[in-house]
Amino acid sequence: MPPSAVMIQRRRESINKKIPVSLCALILASCTSSYPSVSNVNTRNDTVQLTFSWWGNDDRNEYTLEAIRRFEEKYPGIDVRCSYTEWSGYQVRNNVRMASGSECDVMQINFAWIDQYSPDGKGYYDIKQLTDVVDLTTIDSSMLDYGMKENRLNALPIAMNAQTVYINRTLYESYGLDVPVTWSDFLDAAKAMDGKVYPVSMIPKSAWLFCIAYAEQARGHSVFDEEGRLTFTAEDFKVMIEFYCMLVEEKVMPQMEYGDDYELSSGKTAGVVAWLSDAENECAAAIENGYDIVTAPYTSMSGEPGHGWYVKPATMYAVSDNTEHPLEAGMLLNFLINSSEMAELQGLEKGVPLSSPARDTLEGLGMLDGIQYDAFERMEEPALISKMRPVMENTDVIRYFQEACNEVLFDKSTAEEQGEVLCRKIKEISG
After folding, report:
1. pLDDT tens-digit profile of 179-229?
2. How many CB atoms lie within 10 A of CB 255?
3. Which CATH superfamily is domain 161-311+380-430 in?
4. Which of 251, 318, 375, 431 is most exposed by smallest CB count within 10 Å?
5. What number does CATH give the domain 5-159+313-373?
């Protein structure tokens, strides 16, 4: 289980959160500039050592390490020790670090972690206190709101993310089909493909969010309110479970447990529902194989933009509330978000950057193109796309949905019974 809010709060209260006097003097010395001079940092008698953590694959690790090398070259008075691993290992380690107060000075975090580790807004450093070294004007204020908790800026979003429907248009057209726009289009595609190819596939989290979109449109209201409290009833969940089971039984999609086995490049599925930030991972091999991969409109009842689709930060950077070097941590944070060096190295790997100078860098280099940028432009189109609630990514919630669906799919229970079970379990989590 993740550390409780009480445990975190007690640990926070025992730590002195004040910036050292020497650093206050350094901040005051830089008031004539939005960024302290290199000489101010490099004339210190000691080298400041920062720690920085992130998760990712080998490509992300490689370019991030190169970015840190360039940062240290620019500021030789700062030494950055890096800690990185793949997602699941990072998540487990983060639980331990946040409970023990040993988290890194600067860290990549998941959007849902703000609620989990900072329920009172004091779990992470207030970045608004670092505006001498972090330029917040480069990110639209509405985007900064995603990192706010109790009037404290806990984290900065790097890019935005949404579930996106990627379609192999080559395969669809081979069956005389257009790119699907409505829910019924997927059912029609399944009939035409006759079990030879699945019209779409998805892993459990994507299936949960895909079915939320359908159920919200079918039932006419949101599954959670703005505070993340459950508004769906047992009857609403019954409709949602029945929809998923129909998709599997009609061979629109394989069971969500097997979503990873059906990649676009294999030709066994003609579509994938996945995050915008995963566009390259999901589509690159299929494109290399000669398939025409496109983003589909957000699926709706009528073909017109429909609600039920959600957007969230793809990933975020936060500063430890326990850092002994908030000024230097802020400098590293600003470099990661706003520098042309990081923007060029990162490209679109984390999504289209929210920082205006970072985006300008990519535009100047001709890097704002490809399937990921297409997905980004798709995300910006519909007026009804909503802000995701952190509870929607709760791993227990998704597991409960998966278990309820399987109980019905394998005739161990009814959709009505599992709708009641699912409603009760999720209500215990969301309140």
Report:
1. 999 999 999 999 999 999 999 999 999 999 999 999 999 999 999 998 899
2. 17
3. Periplasmic binding protein-like II (3.40.190.10)
4. 431
5. 3.40.190.10
